[in-house]
Design a protein that fits this description.
α1 runs antiparallel to α2. The protein has an eight-stranded antiparallel sheet. The radius of gyration is 13 Å and the shape is globular. The protein contains two helices and eight strands, in the order βαβββββαββ. By secondary structure, the chain is of the alpha+beta class.
């Protein structure tokens, strides 16, 4: 599990959505969970492209906690709205986004629950 401090929300959304879509495969679905609003099961490859509906929720923490989760719970993301951080978990997702994490999303603040940078 890796937690990062968010710098630029628009890039964060792109990186996380692309990483999740690559993990789920062309026929798979994800769960988009928001504790205070409607939750969804959706196919990422049928969302976000030209002429397609947008993803149902943003992975960026915009005042609510939002969780994207694989059907088997093996990977996903969780945004923390007050800390302005994003937790990415599961080896498959971390491998998919690792090249972008340091460059785009900023410094790590926790790895596997342990502090590694400024909070």
């Amino acid at each position: 599990m890796t937690t990062i401090r968010v710098r630029r929300a628009w890039t964060l959304v792109e990186v996380v959505e692309q990483g999740l879509a690559s993990c789920v495969g062309p026929q798979g679905t994800l769960l988009a969970l928001d504790w205070q609003h409607t939750s969804y099961r959706f196919a990422p490859h049928d969302a976000g492209g030209p002429g397609q509906p947008s993803w149902p929720l943003s992975p960026y923490p915009d005042g609510d906690y939002c969780i994207y989760l694989s059907e088997d719970f093996s990977y996903g993301s969780s945004g923390h709205p007050w800390e302005e951080s994003l937790c990415l978990f599961g080896e498959e997702l971390l491998d998919a986004v690792s090249a972008e994490v340091d460059r785009v999303l900023g410094s790590l603040i926790r790895r596997s629950g342990k502090a590694v940078g400024p909070a």
